[in-house]
Specification:
The protein is mainly alpha-helical. Helices cover 80% and strands 0% of the residues.
């Protein structure tokens, strides 16, 4: 009886520690980290201007990444990979944080969460163009439907026309999708966390002087929320989130990881109410749900 119990316990531990379960946990942690990005950015804007917040955020994340790369004695990427890393840096490290931060000066986090919920579809479209693959008709119908839902939501929320915040958000979608697509290509040639690590380090010579200029020109009013927001978007969203996300994605595969990411817009809506006390319009969860359905269809559509 004792031996049987011991065998059962060992089997349970083995299952719990399997690469699939570990990978799922890591990918889920990445999704939770990403879902906190917009609320943390709003908190960070309480203490910093948009330009200095993005520059300091990228500088801190790059220093953390450099420490990990040095500790692991990771060799420099091949010269042929640096152009791709520059695209990742421009889209994920600089472009997306800057444009979404500018948007959040006038847009609510719930509004931004719905618009940026279109990112998986935008990335898939960029990937199709970049790789030359031809997704099925079902995929494109779902993708266009998702875009239509988001466009209708933004126009309805903005009183019949796109606002400057919406334009920033749509721009953020494009540059981030390009960065994700190029990062996905490079992740097949080197570990994914090294892709984002080197992209961050590549931005360091630009972000250090940008931080100094931004802090000198924009007012700084340190508050608890502001500091917590800065620390999270730097260490949590930009480094930790991408690190565990790529590790988890490598273990369970892109399709399964993408299914977990379906929860990200809804999680951000929850944080916008719980942490920021925003009033959530009924259209926000409805639009987010519509986008999730469209993304789920694309995940199951044949390529």
């Amino acid at each position: 009886m004792t031996a049987q119990n011991s065998a059962t316990t060992s089997k349970t531990i083995a299952v719990a520690a399997s690469p699939q379960s570990t990978g799922t946990l890591l990918a889920a942690l990445g999704v939770v980290s990403f879902s906190l990005t917009f609320p943390s950015t709003v908190w960070g804007l309480e203490s910093f201007g948009p330009w200095s917040l993005v520059a300091v955020r990228s500088t801190l994340a790059a220093l953390i990444a450099a420490a990990f790369l040095l500790a692991g004695r990771v060799p420099l990427p091949d010269r042929r990979h640096w152009a791709g890393l520059a695209v990742v840096a421009g889209g994920v490290v600089i472009g997306f944080p800057l444009l979404t931060t500018l948007a959040l000066q006038t847009s609510t986090t719930s509004h931004a969460a719905v618009v940026v919920g279109l990112l998986p579809l935008t990335t898939a479209a960029f990937a199709a163009v970049r790789t030359g693959r031809r997704p099925s008709r079902t995929f494109w119908i779902a993708a266009v439907s998702g875009a239509a839902v988001v466009l209708a939501f933004t126009v309805q929320q903005s009183g019949g026309a796109l606002s400057s915040g919406d334009l920033y958000l749509f721009g953020a979608l494009l540059v981030c999708a390009a960065g994700y697509t190029e990062g996905g290509r490079l992740a097949r040639l080197m570990p994914g966390w090294q892709v984002i690590g080197w992209a961050l380090v590549l931005c360091l010579p630009l972000m250090v002087p940008a931080s100094a200029v931004g802090l000198a020109l924009e007012p700084v009013h340190l508050t608890a929320h502001g500091v917590i927001g800065l620390v999270w978007v730097a260490a949590g969203s930009t480094f930790f989130g991408l690190y565990v996300w790529y590790r988890g994605m490598a273990a369970i595969g892109i399709p399964k990881a993408s299914q977990l990411q379906l929860a990200q817009p809804l999680l951000t809506l929850f944080w916008s109410v719980f942490l920021l006390g925003e009033d959530l319009p009924l259209a926000a969860p409805l639009a987010a749900g519509g986008v999730l359905v469209c993304i789920a269809v694309t995940q199951r559509a044949r390529s």
